[in-house]
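Minutes, project check-in

Agenda point 3 was the complex the collaborators sent over. CS summarized: two entities, 646 residues total, and the question is how they sit relative to each other. Sequences were read into the notes so everyone works from the same version.
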Amino acid sequence: MSNYIRLVDTTLRDGSHAVSHQFSAEQIAAIANGLDRAGVAFIEASHGDGLGGSSINYGRARLTDEEILRAAAKVIDKAALTVLLLPGIGTQEDLRMAVDCGARAVRVATHVTEADIAEQHIGLGKKMGMTTFGFLMLAHMSSPEAIVGQAKLFESYGADVIYIADSAGAMLPSDVKARIEAVVDGVSVPVGFHAHASLGLGIANALTAAEAGAEYLDGTCRGLGGGAGNAQTEVMVAVLQKAGFQTGIDFYTIMDVAEDIVEPVMHRPQVIRNASLIQGYAGVYSSFLLHAYRAAEKYGLNPRDILVELGRRKMVGGQEDMILDVAFELAQTKEVAKNEDDHPNACDRCTKV
Amino acid sequence: MDRIKAAILGPGNIGSDLMYKILRSRRLKMEMMAGIIDSPGIQRAKAMGIRTTTEGIGPILDDPEIRIVFDSTGAKPHLVHAPLLEKAGKIAVDLTPASVGPYLVPAVNLNELADAPNVNMVTCGGQATVPIVHAINRVAGVVYAEIVAAISSKSAGPGTRQNIDEFTQTTARALCVVGGARKGKAIIVLNPAEPPPLMTDTVYAEVEHPDERAIRASVEEMVATVQHYVPGYRLRVPPTVEDHKVAVIVEVEGAGDFLPKYSGNLDIMTSAAAAAGEALAERMLAESRRCRL
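CS then shared the predicted structure for the full assembly.
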């Protein structure tokens, strides 16, 4: 087993959710430059929902995809500028644009059961000479065996790395171990893990993945990300070092990037609040969080109730529109219940008249 | 009553579901099912007493009485079929992504396209959302339309999966060309939940005149129009307006003719194609009545 772990820092992509996709070009340049100086191998920068993600459904970004990438590309020296692409949202045209802007790696992400919608995009990434990752989202929803099948599809399309993403932060370390070990055994390319902190297990799960054979790990500075946030890059560097892994990242530099550059741009502290805890508990896609808060406010609901219902309906990544659907339905139900409380005999009276 | 003879090219899932819909038509006669191998779809049609062929388009071209041809093969074969059908004087209703002819969404532009030799049925997401965009546009002026189509994984065939960009790009174009939006964006999500969820489509629109009452009335009227040919088309979340932004959610339950009810995405395609064929046949019949007089 290799003891070298490559880190993908996704502060500028997953972290984009936590700032409602409002990073400025100056902020992007400062963060990307800091990450590059610290020795991060892959710097992911995109709208939180990947290329083409800027929309009413996922939130409009302050900058276009092109502006985001150009801002990062011009300050990166050694690291590979990386983009996220969700087939169904982003297209091959977007990927060509990203390469023009200097992207050298792409993570093509699908729901954990839908790898076969990524064949063209992975193929194009490879053809353009990019390091190409196949990224399986909400992996807590599938068994290790089923995940291996999907990982093999990615491998057959040419993916260089297969990622298991705990997009809801719903996994326990034992879930991570079972999935990573199965995929490491099942494919011949390196395997990576993307953690979320909803259950307070982000770093523990990342370490478990490394011990189970993962060679790539995702993190964000200060944990900035969707829901309760991600595994905190600077903490991960410390933990991996103590556990005997090498990352090639300078610990002090990455700590300083987190504290001096990332922390000042955060909209709120990245902590586990009740709604994001529920996301881990009910297995709900992390980036739904802020949208659920807004819908809850509009319809006078508790965001927790919206998220639990989304989990019960088994909504997948990208279905932010169903937050409105659920909120509308819950508000209707509440309205009916309220009317019944106000007029307990209303129905009797109606029938008598 | 007189009926116009129709044929289906491509006896797969879509072609088979469409066959049941044409069999119910009062204007169309299901004359021939054409494939290239003796597939289950061909056998099914044969068992129902329908003329079949495994020689592809040839026998359709040879039969002058077949006037309307539904093509549910694939984009590449349709590019071959389209000129042959036009030369033979047959109207092509294209259910593939080939986009040879103009986009047709029955609730919106059926009358404008009555003379086109070839019409394209856009995508399932387009059939579900373009009418809503059009309904909002006619009362509020749509500057930007964005749709999210969610379909069950089970109802997404290999064609959709291998070429998912085609869905988003074609649908986005139709939001503008047929729906009237100045700019369009489409997103598709596959959901593997069991039991398979119904197709849901969310339409967002940025409008010039956010008059909620007018928008609501226009959308409700449009939903009723679509229901004439897609009975399982329903409003889930009626139009809500916030500033200049409108959001509407519809769902599509399939008729369950050949495909299961959760395949509303496929049902809305075959239903729209059948409705288009029906209208074209109606017009042909009216013309022939005039000629006899």
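Noted in discussion: Chain A touches chain B through 31 residues (CB under 8 Å).
Follow-up: revisit at the next meeting once the mutant set is ready.
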